[in-house]
Each structure stands twice: as structure tokens, then as C-alpha cells.
Amino acid sequence: MTMDVIVSLCKRRGFIFQSSEIYGGTGSCWDYGPLGVELKNNVKRVWWRDNVHLRPDLVGLDASILMHPTVWKASGHVDHFTDPMVDCKACQRRFRADQLDEQPWTHYCPATKGNKFEVPAGEPCRHCGARRTLCPECGKGELTPPRQFNLMFKTFMGPVEEDAAVTYLRPETAQGIFVNFDNVLQSMRLKLPFGIAQIGKAFRNEITPGNFIFRTREFEQMEIEFFVNPNDTIDGRPADEVWHDRWIEARFAWYQRYGLRRENLRHREHEKSELAHYAKRTADIEYKFPMGWSELEGIANRTDFDLKQHAQWSGKSLTFFDEERKAHVVPYVIEPSAGADRSVLAFLVDAYREEEVRGEKRALLRLHRDLAPLKIAVLPLLKKRSEIVATAHELRGTLARHWVSVYDDTAAIGRLYRRQDEVGTPYCVTVDVQTVGDADKGEAGDRRVTIRERDSMDQIRVPIGELVPVFRELFDGAPWSGVAARYPAAKG
Ligand code: GAP
User: pTM of this prediction?
Assistant: First the structure.
């Protein structure tokens, strides 16, 4: 499956649009449409629920995007948050120097009278054996030596555009947590180990954004800073190292709980040479995106670097008093840092299936029910019958008090089902003649409706009065087969 399939589905069905598209788009920012915002909110909601609400050792925070400029000096971002950049002297395109060999390159081959070839990433030309030395894009220009390019977006705080007013849009949410460490510790009377979680926007002036919502200049992070006493040991091992392993395992399990297949996830340890300036160890969770294995989440051991830096630059003590040892300690930090947008992309890619049903193609998103943007679609079998339509509208209203529910009568029932499959709606409810009866013929309806399940396409007949309890069971996690076994099957 290619990224184009997902990009096209996202645009066609209202998940994700190119930002400022009517002006030609930006290529580095994306807008979430009506279904996209539901999906992304659901990803953030389950992350928050599973970490902040269900764990006894985590609390939440929502810090501001604009912070005191010294934060970024203390954190090291002003000096170190850079990527090496090169320019093509001919076409003026810019590239990240460290990613040049990861992209295919254009080559005018001397062994074939200068014919133009697209050579795969990292490979030599199979005609002349040459390796890329010129611009990968135009194949003609020399590249400048690498220069360090700071990825932070600069802006001005206040009405005066002068150097003293310069600050930055935060490039990570983490620093908002570090500078609030003492506020949270004191106000919530916490004991180590504990974590502070935050979801919010971050901004990076990426040299080469791309691959849809994978790398953008404005994105959302879901970050946890988990503070550990570095003097503690667990089973003879330093507590920070044990907690690092525990978080790696917990985060792998989390992605799988919401549907990512294990074979599409892998663990990658950072080499010493690629560790960020603050990290003792970092492990990435990588996902097999359509463009290849790439980082979905990073889980770093940031040691006491950030708290010590902020204590030094602010002059405020950022420590925890260890009652047992009667000493102040600067906690170590384990940081599981996930991208909300990358998670959305991974969940979409993993959920997308194409199946053949009775000789026709069925495209569907097998999204976990907690993630699906629409939970229930209520569909009238005949839109000309006013009792059917009125009952369907009424049911949608009742169900919408509990779950995101929509009404649709813009096509025949088969097509309506396909449309809901394609956006991942787990259940459809169909109101038909049997439900409402026929007053002209003196026939009473059975007040039952059909529930159709997306993945199996099974259909059951359920009394209207039991719909809410049945859906409550299903959305609480009961397997469809168990619920379906209690009701008669409906004819497909
Ligand atoms: N606080 C640590 C930190 O920011 P990172 O590995 O640079 O670490 C963490 O970023 C996560 O944020 C990444 O794994 C990715 O999911 C997401 N992310 C980073 N840069 C991104 C970008 N330009 N576009 C979309 N998501 C991005």
C-alpha cells in the first residue's frame, strides 16, 4: 500500500486536507477535517486516559507554547537544536546533509552518453558505478559544505520587534513540564517516582518536511516526563534504567492495544553518536510506514540534565527531598515522547484494508472502536417512507447523547455501508419497513432494527429499547460474537 492511497482517502473522506490549499498549500502543514479531528482527538483521549487517568503515578499539565526565552538557552536548544543543511548551487534546493543518502538521486550517466537515471537511495549507478556527489534532485549542482541550521521558529514577544523581545515557538512540549516541576511537586504532594504528562503543539522549521503528516513544521506531541530517584535500585539495577525498560514495554503494548500489528513495530536503539545532547540512552519505537521503517515515538533517559540546567539558569532549586536518605536529590527523567500526528498516520495505515466481497472491492478502516471517528451510523432503508426516516432521526438523537452518531440517506443501503466501512465506523443501525410496520395495511412494526458490524459484516435484529445497553456493552469492550449470539441474525 502506498502513501498516496491514504492521502487520497484522507482528503476524499474529510480526514486531512492540505493547509491553505486554495493558495497552493504549504506542503509542511496539514488541516484535520471533520473526521480527522475526531480521530486525532480520540488518539489523544485514549493516551490521556491510559496514562493520566488510569495510572496512579501520573498527573497532567497544559503549559503555554510561548515561554521565557531563557528556557531555550538553558535547555540547550538555542545552541544544539540544529540539523546540518546543504544547498544545491545550481537549483538552490536545500537538504539535510545527514539524510542525503536516504533518498533516490538523479544522475546523468557518462557511460550512457549522459542519459538521465533515477538511482535508488544509497546505491551506485549500475552503468558507470558512480556514487552520488552532486545534488540528488537536479543531478547537476554541487552542494555547499554543511552548515548548522537551528530548527526553532523565532518570534517576538510584545509589540516591539527587537532582539530583547525574541522568543521561540516551543520545539517540544517537554520544557513546559521541567519548568513546572516544582509547582506540580508541591501542589500535588507527589513522591518519586511520578510522571507529568502533556499534550500540545510543537513547532520545528524542518529542512525537509514530508511524507504527509509524518514530518511537518507544526505538529502535536504527547509527552511524559517520568521522574525517578537516581539513588534507588530495583532488583539490584539503577531505578532509572529499570523504569526506562518498563516504559519501552508499556508504550509498545499501548500501540498494539489500539490495533497496530506487532510485525509493523520494531525497537531501535540509538547509537552513542546519534544521542541527543541530554540523553544517556534512547530507544525508538519504529513503525513500518509506507515509505519505510521510521520513528513513531522516542523513549529517552534524559538523566538530570534538564532540571539541573533550569536550576542553574533560574537560580531556583528543582529538587526532591528524599525522606529516607534525608537529602535533596535531582531526579532522573525517563521521557516517552510520542507524536499525535504520527500516531494518527500509523493507525490509519495499519487499519486500511481492501477486501473482495461478492466480486466487489470493499475498502475499510479496521480502526479500534475507541479510535473510530464515527461510532454509529443510523441509516433508513427507504428514505421515501416518512416513519422510517423519522424513527432513524430519533434514534440518531438518542445514540448521539452517548456516542458520535450520524444519519445518512444519500444513497442505497449497500453504498451507505461501504461509505461507513471506508471511514471505520464500527456499527451501522438500519431502520426498515419491519421496524415501523405499514399503517395503511394495518401492520404494526416489530420496533426492532438491524445492527451491522463493520469487520464481520454480521447483522442482528435488536429491539430499539435495547440499543443503548447493547452499544454500551460493545463500546465497553464486549466482543461482538458474544453480544450477537443473544439476538437473531438479520438477512444480509
Ligand atoms: N522531547 C523529546 C522530543 O521532542 P523527538 O524525537 O524530537 O523528541 C518526539 O520528538 C516525537 O515527536 C517523535 O517521535 C515524533 O512522533 C514527533 N515529531 C517530532 N518531530 C516531528 C515533526 N516534524 N512532525 C511530526 N511529528 C514529529
Answer: 0.94
